[in-house]
Amino acid sequence: QVQLVESGGGLVQAGGSLTLSCAASGSIFNLNAMGWYRQAPGKQRELVAVTGSGVSGTSTNYGASVAGRFTISRDYIKNTVLLRMNNLKPEDTAVYYCMTREASRQYWGQGTQVTVSS
User: pLDDT tens across 71-89, in order?
Assistant: First the structure.
C-alpha cells in the first residue's frame, strides 16, 4: 500500500500563486506515475498534471485549462511531487487530489481545498 500526504492548499486571491506538495510513503518501490487531479462542485474529477515513466520513457501531461500556468515537478529521491500554480483564477477553485501509481495500482490522497477569490 501507498500513503499520500498533501499540503499547501488554502485561500488565495485571483492572480496569486500556491504550491501544493504530496509525499508518498509505504510501498514506494515502483511509483511509475505521480500527479494531481481536481474536482469542482458538480463536476467530474479532471486531470491537472501528471508525470510518469513507462516503456516509452518519461512523459508529463497537463490539463488544457492549466497548461502554461501550472508546473509539476517530481523528486524521485524524496518520493514527492509538487504542483506550482501561478496566475490562479476563480475557476481553479476545487479539491485537489494527489495521485500515484505503484506498479498497476492507483492511490489517491485525501484531497486539499484550493479556493481562489475574485
Answer: 999 988 889 999 999 999 9
Q: Is the Cβ–Cβ distance between 18 and 88 less than 8 Å?
A: yes
The x, y and z cell numbers of residue 19, run together, are: 504550491
Q: Let me know if 18 is exposed, middle or buried by CB neighbors in 10 A (0-12, 13-18, 19+).
A: buried
Question: Higher-confidence residue: 55 or 61?
Answer: 61
Rounded Cα distance between 27 and 20, Å, is: 22
Please name the helix (run of DSSP H) or strand (run of DSSP E) that holds residue 117, with its range, or none: strand 112-117
Would you tell me how many other CB atoms lie within 10 Å of the CB of residue 116? 19
The whole-angstrom separation of Cα 113 and Cα 99 is 15
- Rounded to whole angstroms, the Cα distance separating 38 from 31 reads 20
